């Protein structure tokens, strides 16, 4: 009888199964990277208000070929937002959906000429990410009587089952001591495509960790969404 305890060797049949599964995952990843994406393909990944749970909210769209900068995160002082420039020719449409007291979803992307170009862009983003680590407070530059406090914690986003990888930034903002929002930002690459996604949750009173989990539930719908 073959041993199955932790650390015991696999029998030959299991070795074949593991090798086959690994080979399939590698082949699938290579296929995703090799896909010839268009800006229209990327836009089909984006969620509708119904998909995002924001029915009744306001939708605002920016045409493709318009956005020339990636906003990496929201700083305590919005006048000092870290950004990375990129040729607007590669920008997809940008879509924002907002519903008061519920949430706000931002979806945008860039389709670069090559995967190497996209990787270069992501390295530039990575150099800005440290600016998104903070915990502090400051006065609103537009309204000095308003005190804004916030925390922001970036981390690596490991390659997922769909081939996306990059950075995840968790942020929470309070105004005059009252929590205003809990946000999750994803800056990800797959092949020649770069996505900048942000779900800001305005739901009051719910535990912060529950809101972060909900944010990722919404954002994963985009990452798992096959281009139609």
| Total of helices | 4
Biggest β-sheet strands, sense, barrel:
8 strands, antiparallel
How many DSSP-defined strands? 10
Approximate shape: globular
Measure the end-to-end span: 48 Å
Q: What is the spatial order of strands in the main beta sheet? A: 1-4-5-10-9-8-7-6
Radius of gyration: 20 Å
Q: Report the structural category.
A: alpha+beta
How large is the share of residues in beta strands?
35-45%
Describe the structure.
With 228 residues, the protein is α+β, with helices and mostly antiparallel strands. The chain has helices spanning 12-34, 39-43, 115-128, 208-223; strands spanning 58-62, 69-71, 83-85, 94-99, 103-111, 134-140, 143-157, 165-175, 178-190, 193-201. It has an eight-stranded antiparallel β-sheet with strand order 1-4-5-10-9-8-7-6, with helices on both faces. The protein has a two-stranded antiparallel sheet with strand order 2-3. A hairpin with a 7-residue loop joins β7 (143-157) and β8 (165-175). The radius of gyration is 20 Å and the shape is globular. The N and C termini lie far apart (48 Å). Residues 1-10 and 12-34 have low confidence and may be disordered.
SSE inventory with pairings:
Blueprint: H1 12-34, H2 39-43, E1 58-62, E2 69-71, E3 83-85, E4 94-99, E5 103-111, H3 115-128, E6 134-140, E7 143-157, E8 165-175, E9 178-190, E10 193-201, H4 208-223
Antiparallel strand pairs: 1-4, 2-3, 4-5, 5-10, 6-7, 7-8, 8-9, 9-10
């Amino acid at each position: 009888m073959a041993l199955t305890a932790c650390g015991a060797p696999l029998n030959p049949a299991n070795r074949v199964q593991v090798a086959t599964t690994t080979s399939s995952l590698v082949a699938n990843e290579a296929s995703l990277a090799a896909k010839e994406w268009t800006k229209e393909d990327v836009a089909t990944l984006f969620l509708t208000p119904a998909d995002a749970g924001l029915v009744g909210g306001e939708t605002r769209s920016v045409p493709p070929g318009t956005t020339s900068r990636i906003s990496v995160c929201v700083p305590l002082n919005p006048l000092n937002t870290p950004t990375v420039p990129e040729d607007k020719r590669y920008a997809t449409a940008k879509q924002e959906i907002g519903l008061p007291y519920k949430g706000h979803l931002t979806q945008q992307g860039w389709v670069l000429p090559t995967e190497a170009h996209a990787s270069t862009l992501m390295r530039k983003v990575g150099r800005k990410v440290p600016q998104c680590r903070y915990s502090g407070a400051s006065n609103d530059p537009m309204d000095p009587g308003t005190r804004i406090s916030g925390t922001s914690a970036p981390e690596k986003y490991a390659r997922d089952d769909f081939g996306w990888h990059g950075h995840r930034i968790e942020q929470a903002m309070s105004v005059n001591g009252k929590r205003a929002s809990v946000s999750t930002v994803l800056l990800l690459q797959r092949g020649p495509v770069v996505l900048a996604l942000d779900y800001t949750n305005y739901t009051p009173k719910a535990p912060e960790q529950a809101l972060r989990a909900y944010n990722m539930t919404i954002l994963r719908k985009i990452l798992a969404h096959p281009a139609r």
